[in-house]
Amino acid sequence: MKFVSQLNEFYVPTLEIDHGKIVKNPEIPSRFEKVIEYMETNHEKISIKDYPLNYIYFVHPKWYVEHLKKLSEKAKDGEYLPEVFLKDRILDSGTPITFSTFDAAINAFYATLTGADELLKNKEHVYVLTRPPGHHATSNLAGGYCYFNNAAIAAKYIFSIIKERICILDLDFHHGNGTQSIFYEDPNIIYVSIHGSPELYFPWISGFEDEIGTGKASGTNFNFPLKGNITWKEYEPTLDKALEIISKFLPSVLIVSLGYDIHSDDHMGYFNLDGNAFKKIGEKLIAINIPILFVQEGGYNKEANFEAANNLFKNFERR
Ligand SMILES: [Zn+2]
């Protein structure tokens, strides 16, 4: 399998406010240092190209992009934690801005579209291993460590070229409130998410079953909220249901928002899935026979991330 990697080693946020306390921010480059080793040994790396910012404007208005740039520039003497949430256009206190936030988010956008182009060229599965993540970013609000919604930009970009239906399967532990809201009225991009119930977990505001899309897109948004501590036994039938829905829509491309925080050893997520579960997820994804663009989201435990990637992508290795 081909992969793109852009870990933005220069971008290391240190703080966030969680439950009213200042704590260490886990969205740091080292979370993927073992995943990258595995990928470089077993898969084919492709180099990243630059893209015009116009493609970001498919999802985020120009004023929002410029606003993030300004916030980053202002943070040159330290790290800025949002104070006036709506004015800052940041949804929560877990999403700081450093001097390099904007540059890192732009690089992640380059990496994602490089992956999208590779998929379009060869109709093969591609993995975009990058950070900061994207699925909590709405069109005009950052949040949950996310600034630009990489998976959503990829979906819009691919759709602009192929004009055929695309599905997004969000497997991160947390509901992708940003991606859902971006496509809530768009019948061409189907959003399907399996996640920890928003009654119990971040992002709290969305991810309920009755959120099904609106207007022409009514019936194209699917949420599968699950309780914490579930094992493969409970996860598997839900994943099967999600994949059945995706197959019925006959998408030309599947984008997987990939969060390793569903692994049992991840301290930000509360499912009990082990390496073997990731192996089975990989087998099921290969079996639906649609070219997949994997776009990295969460996953905060270095070892768990390695075990997840190594098992998930085992069947994608070149034989
Ligand atoms: Zn997550």
Question: What does this entry look like structurally?
Answer:
- This protein is α/β, with parallel strands linked by helices and 319 residues long.
- It has one domain: Arginase, Chain A.
- Helix content is 34%, strand content 16%.
- The chain is built from nine helices and ten strands.
- It has helices at residues 33-42, 62-74, 85-88, 101-122, 150-162, 177-182, 232-248, 275-287, 302-312, and strands at residues 2-6, 15-18, 21-24, 44-45, 126-130, 166-170, 189-196, 221-226, 253-258, 292-296.
- The strands form two sheets. An eight-stranded parallel β-sheet has the order 4-1-5-10-9-6-7-8, with helices on both faces.
- Strand 9 (253-258), helix 8 (275-287) and strand 10 (292-296) form a beta-alpha-beta unit.
- Helix 4 (101-122) packs parallel to helix 5 and helix 7 (232-248) runs parallel beside helix 8.
- The longest helix has 22 residues, at 101-122.
- It is globular and about 50 Å long.
- The structure holds zinc ion.
List the helices and strands and how they pair.
Elements: E1 2-6, E2 15-18, E3 21-24, H1 33-42, E4 44-45, H2 62-74, H3 85-88, H4 101-122, E5 126-130, H5 150-162, E6 166-170, H6 177-182, E7 189-196, E8 221-226, H7 232-248, E9 253-258, H8 275-287, E10 292-296, H9 302-312
Parallel strand pairs: 1-4, 1-5, 5-10, 6-7, 6-9, 7-8, 9-10
Antiparallel strand pairs: 2-3
The chain binds zinc ion (ZN).
Zinc ion is lined by residues 172-174, 259, 261, 297-298.
